Amino acid sequence: MHALLVEDDDRLAHALGTALALRGHTVRRVSRAVEALRLTREAEFVLLDLGLPDLDGLELLRRLRTVCAVPLIVVTARCEERDIVQGLRAGADDYVVKPFRMSELMARIDAVRRRTGGNADPRPTAGPVRVTDVEIDPARRTVTVGGSEVRLTRREFDVLAFLAARPGEVHSREEILDRIWGDAFLGTSRSLDVHVAGIRAKTGRPDLVRTVHGFGYRLGA
């Protein structure tokens, strides 16, 4: 993957560049908005700081989205609710606040690339999926436990079916909320947690949906 890193902090840029390179990515780092606009067409992924010396990062994000649709994550110290909302609405696929854990950022990059097609399986599981004695049938929109049907709400089933489509993958909260609710910013609410709790309670299988602490959920083994 060819990543464009837009970051004016030299120490952080070096750390991010090293982490990406260790994962096999090639990195082009720039520190000014004008350079980012010139090079963005060459990138397959963008990490964007909002605190740039020549142009506000949100304005740069809006301009980038007029010329490219590659996956983009904002990485910034701006942590106010208004900034997060504006960043997501301006076209960011995810929003990470500094300071952050490098492992979490790398996982978010993977999740965004899966969601936007960067690593997506072109033939996701379409038929019924079995997890021990639980069968999830996306086509019929049914869930059975030990042969008996369990009735889930529409949202509960959508969440479960989404996880079952690629049972080996961990999905971030933001990815699930974006796909099911159409709003990644709901990640600050308890909506997803409530629906996951409903799935566990109604199926009587608390391990059917596994929590990956600090990140998201996956289908249980």
Automatic annotation (TrEMBL):
Response regulatory domain boundaries: 2-113
4-aspartylphosphate: residues bearing it: D49
Domain OmpR/PhoB-type residue range list: 126-221
One GO term (biological process): regulation of DNA-templated transcription
GO molecular function: phosphorelay response regulator activity; transcription cis-regulatory region binding
Portion annotated as DNA-binding: 126-221
Key words, A-Z: DNA-binding, Phosphoprotein, Transcription, Transcription regulation, Two-component regulatory system
GO cellular-component term (any): cytosol
Domain of life: Bacteria
CDD domains linked: trans_reg_C
The protein's name: DNA-binding response regulator
Annotated source species: Wenjunlia tyrosinilytica
Lineage of the species this protein comes from: Bacteria, Bacillati, Actinomycetota, Actinomycetes, Kitasatosporales
